[in-house]
Amino acid sequence: MKTTLLIIAALLSGGTVMAQGEPDTTRITFGGKQIIIVGNDTTMIDLDDPSSNGKAGRYGGDLTYWSGIDVGINLPMNGDFQNNFSAQHLNTDPSQSFVYSFNFAEQRIRIIKDYFGIVTGLGFTNSRYGFDNDRMRLQSDSDSTWGVSDTTLFTGFTKNQLRVNTLNIPILFQINTSKNEDNNFHISFGAIGGVRIGSNVKYKYDLAGGGDTKNKEKGKYNLNPFQVLGTVRMGYKDFGLFANYDILSLYEKDKSELAYPFQFGASFHF
């Protein structure tokens, strides 16, 4: 069906359609492009782009690098960009502090052909902050958030994490070095706005003679309901690196010591 529609579109636009000697191969040429259909596989060559050297890029590839999965480290920073706080609930263990993002929708607005444009979309992020104190419980009331030591534990927590879920919308300026997505280095920068849709603290600990016990306590903990991440992202083809810095504090103003999340890691696009 897709092949038929492409052939009709080519003919209506004054293009040409040619069946090759190879089995199940059709070449459609129109508008400076050539689409090659071999069975169920479709590729496209930009005939006006000397850098393509006749190599085919994936048809439908829109050179947009937002949708995919981000995996990285998540650290709160003070106003001097240091991971150092007097409040114990802000001192985190990097080996237990991660960020996972699933970006599931994207749209690019071309400004200078395929080389420069604006990208937006949707995404979901789970940010985890593993507390450095393995006996600390996160507490809050309407005025403040703090940590208290749990002296009833025999060995302490084996998992002690604040988890924050956000729904995100990016506005990114993206630069591509090639129209061929199989040979493209890309960089983007801008902002990612987010709204918190859930949060909890997950505890895991051992009871004497009772084995592992898990507990999840849902709460708002005076967390900031919004985030505005400044972001820089770069990569080659479908692999990339990212760094995000939240210009809004993790907790609401005057209800906790100020802390600004900093995230960095790898991106895998699809």
Overview features:
270 residues, mainly beta, 2 domains, eight-stranded antiparallel β-barrel, 1 helix, 4% helix, elongated
Task: State the strand order across the main sheet.
Answer: 6-7-8-11-12-14-15-16
Radius of gyration: 25 Å
Can you tell me the residue ranges where pLDDT is under 50 for at least 5 consecutive residues? 8-14, 55-60
Whole-number total of structural domains: 2
* Strand-residue proportion: over 45%
Q: Note the run of SSEs as H and E.
A: HEEEEEEEEEEEEEEEE
> Oligomeric form of this entry?
single chain
Task: Output the number of helix runs.
Answer: 1
Mean pLDDT: 84
Structure summary, number of beta strands: 16
Cα separation of the termini: 24 Å
Helix/strand structural class = mainly beta
Helical residue percent band: under 10%
The biggest beta sheet, please?
8 strands, antiparallel, barrel
Query: What is the approximate shape?
Result: elongated
Task: Characterise the protein shown here.
There is one protein chain. This protein has 270 residues and is mainly beta. It folds into 2 domains: 2-58, no CATH class; 68-269. 4% of the residues lie in helices and 57% in strands. It has 1 helix and 16 strands. The chain has one helix at 2-12; strands at residues 16-19, 25-30, 33-38, 41-46, 57-58, 68-77, 98-112, 116-130, 136-140, 145-149, 157-176, 185-207, 211-218, 226-236, 239-246, 260-269. The strands form 3 sheets. It has an 8-stranded antiparallel beta barrel. Strand 3 (33-38) and strand 4 (41-46) form a beta hairpin. The longest helix is centred in the first third of the chain and has 11 residues, at 2-12. The model is unreliable at 8-14 and 55-60 (pLDDT under 50).
